[in-house]
Amino acid sequence: MSSNYRNFQNSVPLLIIILEAAFIILFYFFDIDNDDSPLSGISYPAFQDVSHMMIFGFGFYLTFLKRYGFSSTGFNLLIIVIGVQCSMLIEGVLVSFLPNKIEDRLKRRTAVVSTTAVVISSAAVLGKTNPVQLIVMTVVEVMVFWMNRWINTKFLQNPDNISMMHVHLFGAYFGLAVSSRFSEPSPRSEKNGSTPKSDLLSMLGTLFLWVFWPSFNSVLAADSKGKAIYNTYFALAVSAVTAFVLSVLTTKDGKFRMSHIRSAVLAGGVAVGYAAHSIEYPWIAMILGLLASVITILGSYCLQRCFHATLEIHDSSGVHFTFGLPAVLGAVAQVILFVIKNWTNLPSLHFFVVIHIGAFCFTISVALVTGFITGLILNLKLFKTTPVSKYFEDQFYWEFPHLSVGF
Amino acid sequence: MSSNYRNFQNSVPLLIIILEAAFIILFYFFDIDNDDSPLSGISYPAFQDVSHMMIFGFGFYLTFLKRYGFSSTGFNLLIIVIGVQCSMLIEGVLVSFLPNKIEDRLKRRTAVVSTTAVVISSAAVLGKTNPVQLIVMTVVEVMVFWMNRWINTKFLQNPDNISMMHVHLFGAYFGLAVSSRFSEPSPRSEKNGSTPKSDLLSMLGTLFLWVFWPSFNSVLAADSKGKAIYNTYFALAVSAVTAFVLSVLTTKDGKFRMSHIRSAVLAGGVAVGYAAHSIEYPWIAMILGLLASVITILGSYCLQRCFHATLEIHDSSGVHFTFGLPAVLGAVAQVILFVIKNWTNLPSLHFFVVIHIGAFCFTISVALVTGFITGLILNLKLFKTTPVSKYFEDQFYWEFPHLSVGF
Amino acid sequence: MSSNYRNFQNSVPLLIIILEAAFIILFYFFDIDNDDSPLSGISYPAFQDVSHMMIFGFGFYLTFLKRYGFSSTGFNLLIIVIGVQCSMLIEGVLVSFLPNKIEDRLKRRTAVVSTTAVVISSAAVLGKTNPVQLIVMTVVEVMVFWMNRWINTKFLQNPDNISMMHVHLFGAYFGLAVSSRFSEPSPRSEKNGSTPKSDLLSMLGTLFLWVFWPSFNSVLAADSKGKAIYNTYFALAVSAVTAFVLSVLTTKDGKFRMSHIRSAVLAGGVAVGYAAHSIEYPWIAMILGLLASVITILGSYCLQRCFHATLEIHDSSGVHFTFGLPAVLGAVAQVILFVIKNWTNLPSLHFFVVIHIGAFCFTISVALVTGFITGLILNLKLFKTTPVSKYFEDQFYWEFPHLSVGF
């Protein structure tokens, strides 16, 4: 193990230095400047809200593990900043190679939003990967996600904001596929649990995500921002209420369980993402929020017992039912809502349904296949997989206060 | 007690499901749409700031109790989302029933701001109510508060933003009246205290409230937003300074007490709420902030010794002196400032004073009477009151990490 | 010690009351009104972001000490509100005394930004000063900083935003000079350390600062706000990445050290402050962020071993390498960038270089000299210096919830 650790020590700096040097050099050669910055496509307050959500909200959302707080917040920051740079670079490269028409369509993208996929995937393998594996996963996932969006937009004629909303779907299934290649933690291990303090900190992150989710869903809605905001708010409100109900109904002695609340309060925001800008009446968003919360908690109840046990997938922070299932619901709901609204106009309806279902299935397939391959690669000897006994353990990566003296 | 708990387990889901179903159905029938949304009366950044304050700021402001962190943040979220939906619905209903003129006057309201009353009241009974009681209280209070505002605006000709600012006053006195009907916690109980960690988390929430308070006070000021913001900032600054002075002067061994700081730093913001948009010079706001902080700390010193002991009221988080007294001060100050400014114009002056004092007394009376009745109702056998021995105890409602296994 | 404490008890209220009375009276006499408010020069969202950074971000950034969380957040709030009032007053006084031309130039300043200097200085003496000393330091430092800016702007013809950016430089060196006059804590003391929990709370504050730093750097950039924002973001991103690399390389067993991450992730934001509005390409900002992170971590490695040990300076939170050195780098980089850009235009170039280097050296000298004098004054018997055994100890100033054990 000690030698294991030595290797980790050597490879982290090397990998990051090479990556960062490549970023700077490519930024230089592809002449990416600030005026054209993909970040500037959206207004600063919206950009900042999303950045706040990612860095702070997700960082603390993931601190629920007893002894993994430093890594949760620290590595989250690390992969986001790498993901954002990587994402901006890909965009810059695409813009310089592609003809004008595509360029326009690609321009209004936001690098920060894309990193959501990476954050969600990293949550699925939380506590089981070392930083080298996380960084490799980040770079691969950002590239694949971009490729997927590009195919979605170009060949499947999917609108911009929809292909972006696949971010939850993609992140969750990519993460699950990667996670299936990692060994399960020992069931007797106590480290894979939470303390009241760590749960409370995680609640802090969750409330942050909750408050900023309307910004996230409206960031790409060009013309109906207000609608996107209030629909998201209503969906989130109803999921929060439903989360409390279902938590009482599904736990053994009828108490609330913090992990239920934590995942189900956000489900509504994820589910309404696809259709937020087009829903006319709040009651539709409310029903969507209710359904999202239901499938999240029932999902957590059933999936962990049956599905995951059979497939030997261990999903550290429950991304499958927090982000995966609600996103599936959202994608289906969007198609249903569109069909109901336009049922008189059959030909265009047919086209729309095929496109959306196609894009949706394509995205899940790409996520699963590439995630599985990434998982295989990450388990190569080269990457010095963390031993199962060191899962969920900050001390394997971080100097601990009681050991250090100075500053 | 076990049977007590069973009942709680059955009634929470039932109550919430009925309520939520009613909300969705009524939203559908009253045809409340997003464009007309009462939320859209204010800009998104302002709406988000207030939402952040309520969900996150108040949630953590109330975590000071040793073993009540989960309930403080969780139930706070629950009652806010129920309160907002309820408030929007009442507004939608009023708008569809009332003639046009009233409708205009009612439109620019914000559902989120109204829920402040509920949050404040719930703080007064913090740790003593079960979720069923909290939800019933929320629905009743939102309705009564709306009725009160409607009477204030229609019959007492009170301007919009003033009737809204009664939110602190109403919340505090309603909460106190409810609280008078609950038995006091055992004086030997240690649970009704804080730890350094819980105090620090509570400080976190307080600083959030402090930073966002200018947004709160300016959210309804139509034309003089800038004034409202900076007056609030000055009042808050001076209350913070004064809080430190008075804390040293009133504690036994001359040290700072965290609970003093926590309540007094916000007092200035509450007091200046009424007049924030009309104060001309910062020094007036500063004096108001100073006075607010003084009455808060002296209030906490005297009220807890004399007044509350006599009336057998137990005010868990000191809402009487944190929100109640500063709001009274603010209402009085607004009248005095108006009189000083317009003393040449006697007839209109007379009218103004009568209206304002009337509205103010009316609001307090309504809050006290309806709060008292609500307190009586909540103590019916039907609601399975939490036994005194289980006050301030998360474990009565929440599954605790070490007891749970999965996810 | 007990008598020591008595004195503290008497002097804190007295000092604050006198100060606050003076503020209110001077605000009245200098007729500072809200419309002319220096706060209103910047938009409310920007003002709020900076306020959030100062109050909340810095408050929690400094909670890393094991037993000093109450004082870190509480005293931080206290000195900021005093600093802001003091700063606004000085501005108001200058505006009323100075002729019109200067007035215009001075108007667009922000009182909140100036207090950054005070916060940084207070971090250098964190845990070693009592509140009376902190308040005196605040008032002196704000005055000296204003004087320095005034000289910079008037005699050295330094542009507004540059003279403002000296805030980090000034704060760090003033703080270090003050700190050199305080005795070092006992090396055996365990209080000068952190726990995993306090480190995590400090990370919370750091992430807040990280997210809001682009707002800080853009707040004074009149015309190229967008550029300032994105350059800062890139610099911060690269410093975060570099921080992880260097932390692994410099710690004994190749692990990450939280204190490295905490200071180095912000270094890029500090360094890019001077030139943020004028850098054309993100890769330049990225290189600056990289260099800033490097000098921060190498600085922490070397300075603590050699420089500080020799000079007997004890820098509680490492402000020298977190704010001081990156600010020096930023000032130098700005000059170099300007020279590269304008090397054809020799005469104006010469002038520019002299002005900037002059202003920079002048600011450091003023900070060091006045800081040293302030340090001497603060160690007068009058101020009842905290005994070394009570350094880093909340309980010396705060009433403790002493009865509680675990959460």
TrEMBL record, chains A, B, C:
PANTHER family assigned to the protein according to its UniProt record, in alphabetical order: AMMONIUM TRANSPORTER, BLOOD GROUP RH(CE) POLYPEPTIDE-RELATED
Single GO molecular function: ammonium channel activity
GO cellular component: plasma membrane
Cellular location(s): Membrane
Transmembrane segments: 12-30, 42-65, 77-98, 110-127, 134-151, 200-216, 228-249, 283-303, 323-343, 349-380
Source organism of this protein record: Phalacrocorax carbo
Main location: membrane
Keyword Flavoprotein: no
GO BP field: ammonium homeostasis
Family to which this protein belongs: Belongs to the ammonium transporter (TC 2.A.49) family. Rh subfamily.
Domain Ammonium transporter AmtB-like: 42-381
Coiled-coil regions, chain positions: none
Topology within the bilayer: Multi-pass membrane protein
Keywords: Membrane, Transmembrane, Transmembrane helix
Full protein name: RH-like
